[in-house]
Design goal:
The structure is a homotrimer.
Chain A: E1 5-6, E2 11-12, E3 17-18, E4 23-24, E5 29-30, E6 35-36, E7 41-42, E8 47-48, E9 53-54, E10 59-62, E11 82-83, E12 88-89, E13 94-96, E14 99-101, E15 106-107, E16 112-113, E17 117-119, E18 124-125, E19 130-131, E20 135-137, E21 142-143, E22 148-149, E23 154-155, E24 160-161, E25 166-167, H1 179-182, E26 187-188, E27 193-194, E28 199-200, E29 205-206, E30 211-212, E31 217-218, E32 226-229, E33 234-238
Parallel strand pairs in A: 1-4, 2-5, 3-6, 4-7, 5-8, 6-9, 7-10, 8-11, 9-12, 10-13, 11-14, 12-15, 13-16, 14-17, 15-18, 16-19, 17-20, 18-21, 19-22, 20-23, 21-24, 23-26, 24-27, 25-28, 26-29, 27-30, 28-31, 30-32
Antiparallel strand pairs in A: 32-33
């Protein structure tokens, strides 16, 4: 006998299984061949493609929270969360309503993906990663463990962000009314790479195939295909040819 | 029929709702108009004000853990956790017994608040933040995503801490018996601001309205109303007048 | 009446208790006198020693996830997770199958321990710590809050890693086929200590009783019993004699 609570209007595909104490809300659509662990919560209206694995304690389709004094006060009418086929959602992951995730995406344990975020196919969102609201993440991106992507960021295809990289979006650091006009996340162009523990300031563009060295503090836009390093980060040398994106033999 | 386990001595206010598979312990008091998600655990004796939202998988009132070789060995008799009205507790948050949280406080997803902590009204504790034991956090404070507040810290009103800031409290770094006398967290005075990815050493005071630049390493106390930057952080220039706390037109 | 789901082949020791909505899988063995909170999930085959405390929402014995484009593609036949006696597993912790944890180990809230990891006796794994796969952690180690230990690392006995330290294992940063031959984590020798917010590059050895200062970027192997500091880290001075491991009077 099932210990889970599944709304009568939810539809689970052929061969889809779930563990104990799951909660599956109204009008949820789950494709064929999915495997849900124990204690999984899928909120109303969420759609999930075929062959997705969702691990214990994951929460999909959470409604945004609004703090009394949050900088973001508009409460939009968000579409339900949508997760493409063939992906994996890790343990205790939190995915918000208004988030669209492509196919073959891995969202690893304890990470969070906020509302108004899109994530392209074949991307890896590492353990403990936080992607804030209003971000666009491309295809074949790797965000490694504990990476922090600030709101209003754009990350293009084939970007690689090493563990514990931090980003920011408010040069006014919480002061002045002006700041509300100027919130700007980071832009990371196609194939750029960011080393472990680097910090990127608000509004910065990391250009195509730039390599930001480990521990760098990026205070201005970076030149394409160069390595930048240091605090503040300065141009250091060319990215080795064999590491350039175009020389990897990747099809797309 | 409810799937939750609610102790007979627990009292839930008028209009308070809860999801599936919640566990509400003995003598818990929850005010009117609260909304608890699924899988919420409220431990014995906890009090929660009116109109609080508590999201899926949150745990409130956890008893401290004691490691075999932890530096903190005293096991005090802690009062139950107390959460003021009108707040939000995020998904998979962990709040300890012996923690007192004010009104209109947001504690975002996956953050932890340890025992012997007080948090003032209107404060935001961001996603993934960890506040260790014996900390005092003021009113209208913002601790952004993944901020780490070490034990024995004091953070005054209107402080802003940007994402991924780290603090520490042990200059002896785990050696000598001496160190137990000298554990000292950080003190962040009213209106001070800390930029993304900064690191603050044990016992440091960040003075009133100081702005610590992104990525700085703060090794000594900072001057009020100055910007400090670099590794180690040095005085850089005045905080722009329009960014000073007194010039924001905030009432309190 | 129990609300938990316990497989008929699971064996729980004398005096072992569990909370509500737990799931205990096939062939699990739990020793005497253990205390499991609510919503605890113990996957098939896991063994747990006597007198272990496992807090709410912890997941033990999770099977690895494999991303479509993960660098690690081999899927080994992992042994079940094994946890020694007298330890504590915190709230929402995730421990993988193929992980062996010693006695009197604390794994604090929201931390993750991946497959093919061993952790020695009396070690503390702090809140939010992530230990990736193929790591060896010694005895009496302290990994403080939010420390990140990259895959293929070795950490010897009595090492102390302060909060928010980051490590890495790929000098090619996700490019070239070459890189698969060169993944190498960090090696931290007996008694070494790493200060808050330090970053350690791939393949680095931190030698015996080295002290890495807070905020340092370690780009080459460190000398034993010296303090290294700065970006990049340079030899600074001797570790004070009273802080050397041999002078602590510790028995082992």
């Amino acid at each position: 006998m099932s210990t889970s609570v599944i709304a009568p209007t939810a539809k689970l595909g052929a061969g889809t299984r779930h563990g104990d104490f799951c909660v599956i809300g109204e009008d949820v659509r789950i494709g064929d061949g999915c495997v849900l662990g124990h204690h999984v919560i899928i909120h109303d209206g969420t759609t999930i493609g075929a062959n997705v694995r969702i691990d214990d304690g994951a929460v999909v389709g959470k409604r945004p929270m609004r703090a009394a004094n949050s900088a973001v006060t508009k409460d939009a009418d968000l579409p339900p969360a949508a997760i493409g086929p063939d992906g994996i959602i890790g343990t205790h992951v939190v995915i918000y309503r208004g988030c669209a995730i492509g196919r073959k995406v891995l969202v690893a344990d304890l990470s969070t993906v906020r509302e108004n975020v899109t994530i392209g196919d074949f991307t890896i969102v590492g353990r403990g990663v936080a992607i804030e609201n209003f971000c666009t993440i491309g295809r074949y991106v790797k965000l490694e463990t504990n990476v922090y992507i600030t709101a209003y960021s754009e990350i293009e295809d084939r970007v690689f962000v090493a563990p514990c990289v931090a980003t920011s979006n408010d040069n006014y650091i919480g002061r002045t009314e002006e700041r509300f006009k100027h919130f700007k996340g980071v832009t990371i162009r196609k194939g750029a790479r960011i080393g472990v523990g680097a910090v990127i300031l608000p509004g910065i563009t990391i250009n195509q195939d730039t390599l930001v060295a480990a521990g760098a503090l990026v205070t201005k836009d970076t030149p394409a295909r160069k390595i930048v390093a240091g605090i503040p980060a300065k141009e250091f040398r060319e990215v080795p040819a064999d590491q350039l994106l175009d020389n990897q033999g990747w099809k797309e």
